[in-house]
Design a protein that fits this description.
Two copies of one chain form a homodimer.
Chain A: H1 8-18, H2 35-53, H3 57-63, E1 66-67, E2 73-74, H4 79-89, H5 107-120, H6 122-141, H7 144-156, E3 160-164, E4 180-183, E5 189-199, E6 209-215, E7 228-233, E8 235-237, E9 243-246, E10 249-254, E11 265-278, H8 284-320, H9 344-376, H10 380-415, H11 427-436, H12 444-455, H13 458-479, H14 482-511, H15 513-547, H16 554-570, H17 574-582, H18 587-590
Parallel strand pairs in A: 3-6
Antiparallel strand pairs in A: 1-2, 4-5, 5-11, 6-7, 7-11, 8-9, 10-11
Helix pairs in contact in A: 1-2, 1-9, 2-5, 5-6, 5-8, 5-9, 6-7, 6-8, 8-9, 8-10, 8-11, 9-10, 9-15, 9-16, 10-11, 10-12, 10-13, 10-15, 12-15, 13-14, 13-15, 14-15, 14-16, 14-17, 15-16, 15-17
Chain lengths: ~600, ~600
């Protein structure tokens, strides 16, 4: 069975030494987060996920969910018990607001818990995971009554939530939705329509499931300007908070998916179900983006999380499997063959994964800090900068993180040779599960367009200029240190490519918007490379400073410096080729008529 | 259900217009291949695979194979009937030698039939597919009696064959195998051991299955110098050719795999089975490489084939699915949304796939011609050049072809958004099936090492120098034509990177062989890019010449020119970043001790 060991040492390095969370103790919500308390939370969270949740990952994939004739759904063996323990321990409440029963801790810690949970079991993670988006929407747009009715139980995990957007004929283009909401005399609405791909749409983990549903009121304008958001509980809630009648919403069937098989991905039928509008009529898209933005960060973390667990299993295999001899002479002459570790091409794959997962974890941790600071920093200037950063980089965390996360899973599967293709070894599941993250919560093509079409130009390019400055400052500081000069030069070069690509898009996207569309995907990847480069500079600087103190765990910091060097050598060169591709523009890409793609 | 339409127009373009097969009519075996005959074979083969084999692909994936209590294996519904039709039509015999009942046609046509079959149904293709390798080994190393007993029935398809190499503890490092072959008084051997991952090891398609098995005789030297090859029929064959007793070989279980589920991948138990040595004692590895080389080309073709069928389905979806509006204004104002085709990022993925599949098909077709010419060209100089080319490029066809083939399947799945993740749409199967091709017949890491560690240096680098010259000549000729100058410049630049990478490996691989290992994978990919660039130059030249004649199907040739341009813009830039990565060498890659990879 595959293993999972939460990377607590790396998490502590990032939180305590790189972003220095404790130094923000003056900010509201951060005062409880002492270094000791943080370390205890990290260790306990790691233990819980490694011991309780991870062992259900492979069995869940094999068993899947079962829909019964009455439309009820049973999750795989052990999920219900594990969810009860998860809820009891409050792992879903770390970063939720105290006002509604959460622990009010920094998002930095909430992110850590999400990563560990997603590594341990991505299907399991998606039951509480989608709830977080629904909670965010209610926090931002719900009426006081809606908040009081739903938030305490959703935050405690007594009830779970869903996000109902997609319909059979539309996903990306939500202006096309057909689900109708007809107002009733009592202020509620009657919701009718079919939603598909609804994660955790029906299950046996909780007594109630709170659906947030996009629908159109009668006479709503066509297009996405005519969408409203509704709250539709599976069980109606009585005035005293107890459960009332069953609502007219049900699971019509379960989807047969490539992966995340232990999550109940449902076709949901609304047959005149009772719902209540959240926020204003026809302003549902804005509310949806609140759900989406949190969810997108969560999905980026899934890319990291699957890459991490795949990496750990590949490392284990590489250290146990003996095959062939080192090119430089037998490493273990007493054995019949050396371990896979001696082979450069295996090492290449493992170092790729190490450089990506550690860089990406830093990026997510730093991103979570920006998210915290955007709300809680002392000054408006700091809050705005942090908000600019996390808004700009959310599509990069999601798009780049899940693209490279998937590629990493594939490479880790490759380390296993033929055994990687056999389900018993578990590597196939990591690949299959990781694949969805490139697709849902907005495909990575949509993320790239969000970045290039919206985020770049906002406020006259203020955010991207701030990002350039941040990287430039870091590079300049690092260049002064001989040990970091090479990496600083490589990241600086990648940042120059990013600037050139930005300039190119500004100039050519105006002329023909398809130039922006054609360059969006490479642009997102260049920004991903520069972001991880920035993180590796930060980590290398800390490692260098620590090594000067001759610490006990010297090897940990030395490995950071080697991996930083590897990142510079093997990740940054792509920034140039991506910029060259981007600068080719859309002409050849868009030149052919649809018929020219047909075969015959 | 997914569609498949054999790309016959493209095949005819390559065979008749690009490599001009008819012009080789003076060579033995080629005289029968008139343009008319070739076209008829292509069309009929395309029809057969589209109509008979492709419809069984998805049902085969869903149903899989069944092993019964007695060890017998049933293939999915319809496979037995389709195989009977396949055999009757002689699709496996096109390029087999006439002497043993084959049609003796050029390998160029055999390749075409392999591609169509692998696109239609990769699992199905692997039943006759593995037989070809076994046939090659018997042709090269079998005794006259072995050849007479087995070849006619294996070539006709009455019996199918397998290749038994891998054991639970070893795949790549075959020196470690434990299967034993003890000589008997009558000249036969008693074979005992366990083999795993045996494709088509047991099934119900034929009355007999001919296993070619690697084993060690008593007192054989350790290492791969002590391996011998044995022929072990499932049913012993009587002197008159009729079937005798059941041999002591059986299927112990079927592997649970990520894909190719309709192929019976078996654990094979040899319990004192009767076998006969093929070729010389302890020279089994050489015989195995004969099997392997043909099989590696076949696997490269699978990479192309899965990319092709995935592409076709993505094109169909992109033309039917309406979502969003073109950035340049509504393309179909009468509809509620435009087709996916209008979106640049979708177009990017489709053009990537178009440029890869058409370039890769040309590469395989041209490679098959080199394989033919290596045996049949009129002069020794021509035969040697052709042999140098196909030996050098076989690992590139396998490694680059399956890496990019898999990536293409993933991108085509991405075109479908959420539906790509749902099994009913078929895209998941293409991804899952394509994944194995990067692993089997030598992982792509092994291909890269074969290229860099063996092929480059053979005969003082004669082959790679000839390849450089071939590309230089093509570029020089193309540069003279204004329409091709840009692409010629891009391919020339990529070829310069390949030369620089070669020089770097020569200089640094000597100093430390891990530098060769660390650079092998990027090197293989640079050579893949240059090879497809060479092919796109050849195709563009033909298209340009045809367009000057104002042909009826002008659009076909115009599309070739646009796609060639796209290839130059979007594929060749990677040659530079890959060379920069390669030139970083092995230092950072190999610096860390194994413990540094652990988490905690």
């Amino acid at each position: 069975m595959p293993i999972y060991q939460a990377p607590t040492r790396d998490t502590r390095f990032l939180i305590n030494e790189v972003i220095k969370l404790e130094s923000y103790g003056n900010l509201p919500g951060f005062e409880d987060a002492s270094a000791e308390m943080i370390d205890a939370v990290i260790e306990e969270c790691g233990r819980f996920n490694s011991e309780v949740v991870a062992p259900l990952n492979q069995s869940g994939d094999q068993q899947g969910c079962t829909r019964h004739a009455d439309g009820s759904v049973t999750t795989p063996d052990g999920f219900k018990q594990a969810y009860a323990l998860f809820r009891e321990a409050g792992w879903g409440t770390l970063a939720a607001p105290k006002e509604w029963g959460g622990q009010g801790l920094p998002h930095v810690l909430g992110f850590m818990a999400e990563e560990y949970l997603a590594s341990a079991n991505q299907s399991f993670m998606m039951y509480p995971g989608l709830t977080a988006g629904a909670v965010n929407a209610l926090l931002a747009k719900g009426s006081p009554e809606q908040q009081a009715t739903y938030l305490p139980k959703m935050i405690s995990g007594e009830w779970l939530g869903t996000m109902n957007l997609t319909e059979p004929h539309c996903g990306t283009d939500l202006g096309l939705i057909r689900t109708r909401a007809v107002p009733a005399a009592d202020g509620s609405y009657s919701i009718t329509g079919t939603k598909i791909f609804i994660s955790a749409g029906e299950h046996d983990l909780t007594d109630n499931i709170i659906h947030l549903v996009l629908a159109k009121t009668p006479d709503a304008p066509e297009s996405s300007k005519g969408i409203s958001l509704f709250i539709v509980p599976k069980m109606l809630v009585n005035a005293d908070g107890s459960l009332g009648d069953r609502n007219a919403v049900s699971c019509g069937s379960l989807e047969h998916k490539m992966g995340i098989k232990a999550n109940a991905t449902c076709v949901m039928n609304y047959d005149g179900a009772t719902g209540w509008m959240v926020g204003e009529e026809n302003k549902g898209l804005a509310a949806m983006f609140i759900m989406m933005n949190a969810a997108r960060l969560g999905v980026g973390i899934q890319g990291l999380a699957q890459a991490e667990v795949a990496y750990q299993n590949a490392v284990k295999y590489a250290s146990e499997r003996r095959q062939g001899r080192a090119l430089t002479g037998a490493a273990d002459p007493a054995e019949k063959a050396d371990t896979l570790f001696v082979h450069a091409d295996v090492r290449r794959m493992l170092m790729d994964a190490k450089a990506f997962t550690e860089g990406m974890r830093a990026f997510c941790t730093w991103g979570a800090l920006q998210s915290d600071l955007s709300h809680k920093a002392a000054t408006e200037v700091e809050r705005q900068l942090a908000d600019d950063m996390i808004s700009l980089l959310t599509p990069v965390i999601k798009g780049y993180g899940t693209d490279i996360g998937f590629e990493t899973c594939v490479e880790m599967q490759q380390v296993f040779g033929g055994h990687g293709y056999i389900e018993e070894w578990g590597m196939s599941q990591f690949v299959r599960d990781a694949r969805i993250a490139q697709i849902y919560e907005g495909t990575n093509g949509i993320q790239a367009m969000d970045l290039v079409g919206r985020k770049l130009a906002q406020n006259g390019g203020r955010a991207v200029q701030a990002f350039f400055a941040l990287v430039d400052t870091e590079c300049a500081a690092a260049k002064a240190k001989p040990e970091l000069a090479a990496l600083a030069g490589q990241v600086e070069a990648a940042n120059s490519e990013l600037k050139a690509a930005t300039m190119w898009l500004m100039q050519n996207g105006m002329m023909n918007p398809n130039n922006a569309g054609a360059g969006a995907h490479p642009y997102m990847h260049i920004m991903g490379i520069v972001s991880l480069g920035l993180m590796w500079l930060k980590m290398a600087e800390v490692a260098l400073a620590r090594l000067a103190e001759a610490p006990a765990d010297k090897a940990f910091y030395e490995a950071k410096l080697v991996t930083a060097r590897y990142f510079g050598e093997r990740f940054t060169p792509d920034a140039t080729s991506l910029r060259v591709k981007l600068a080719a523009g859309c002409e050849a890409m868009m030149a052919l008529p649809a018929e020219a793609f047909a075969r015959g």
